[in-house]
Design goal:
3 copies of one chain form a homotrimer. Chain A is of the alpha/beta class. The first copy, chain A, is about 35% helix and about 15% strand. Chain A has helices at about 15-30, 60-70, 85-95, 105-110, 120-125, 145-150, and strands at about 5-10, 35-40, 115-120, 140, 155-160. In chain A, helix 1 (about 15-30) packs parallel to helix 4.
């Protein structure tokens, strides 16, 4: 295990296309027997949220921000041409047609291949989230120094 | 050739500023005698499209998405302040004034310096494109495992 | 000094969340005794501007673009949900509440930890800026070949 080459990706975007790209690279690397870590931060945390609207957000400002920033892996918008969902609907259709996995499927595959899924502790509160808002596929919560520890040992580092 | 240091860049954005940054880094690295690969995916594929509207898109949903996502290297918008073309016009004017090459010129220079231009097979269909939509400057089409093969050998890896 | 591991980050975004992520990673790496360089380009240059509106922009087109692209580290918008400032106000509130440093504080810490702050010469003019628009915390101005020189020696390279 210690001798495997490492690939570490920061997923700071919650856009459907950017998140898809992250999982395509991560799952391909894991299938090539690399040791892969996905580190989700800022909007990327939306991918890991259990539900759309966080009723348990401790304070009113977080509730407001959580309402603005409704997430969940089924609801990620496109980074362009979201257009109230029309563009995103079209791309989801094309993803299905061309057998590109949905984010839900990609997370499942990632777990099967041993990809580590980490949520950034530093930005959880800032995004209006709390620890128990995350799906069980999250391996752990960690901060920037844990990220850098992995990154400094990795052959491929990306920020998406 | 095998001993040259490698630089590999994923170009996932089709925004004028991000694409300019990609070519500035790629062409500078190639001028420094590095082995450079640009791997275009998602909106980045717009840079490599022959024409704005893809009449040959095989199916109606692709035609619709292709109509939304009109591309071509002369038509890339800014990531900010595109403002129906006004901001983009201003930046193109300033790029010319400060002798920053246009994308068309940057692609020409890239080819002269031996930069490899690769289009991502996984996302071609999803973006409403077909193989013969691309400009002849594209060296080849390849998937995520080909990308990772390059990336794992590279000194500099970027995702733009 | 020469033996320290290097971390080099291109900051091409001027969005509050992306710039925060850049400084969190940079300052954490510097605190771990790494040799860190932040290379600001395109919208990232907004972080380093003295004032919002550049009255000294030499030509009218630059003045116009500078007016569109009003910057300064206190005025960075969010990449999403800026919503005329409402979303950005909410996140700034949450950043304060969760003791995430403001950009002004993050720059101060970066300087104390020895992080190098470099402004990209190639894009200064294109962004409607001039050399004396920058805050004194900028260590130097440099181009893409200087960036690549650093990047080729770095253990971690990111483009944000």
């Amino acid at each position: 295990m210690a001798n495997k080459e490492k690939v570490t990706i920061v997923v700071s975007s919650g856009d459907l296309d950017k998140v898809s790209a992250s999982f395509i690279i991560a799952n391909t690397a894991a299938a090539m027997d690399k040791d892969v870590t996905l580190f989700f931060t800022f909007w990327g945390l939306n991918v890991l949220r259990k539900s759309a609207f966080n009723l348990r957000a401790p304070k009113i400002i977080q509730k407001l921000f959580s309402l603005l920033n409704r997430g969940g892996k089924e609801r990620l918008p496109l980074s362009k041409f979201h257009m109230f969902g029309i563009g995103t609907f079209l791309m989801k259709y094309l993803m299905k047609k061309y057998r590109m996995p949905s984010i839900t499927e990609a997370i499942k595959t990632a777990k099967e291949l041993g990809v580590k899924i980490i949520a950034c502790t530093t930005t959880i509160g800032v995004m209006g989230l709390a620890k128990d808002d995350f799906i069980p596929e999250v391996d752990s919560l960690a901060g920037a120094s844990a990220y850098l520890g992995e990154a400094l040992e990795s052959k491929v580092n990306l920020f998406i």
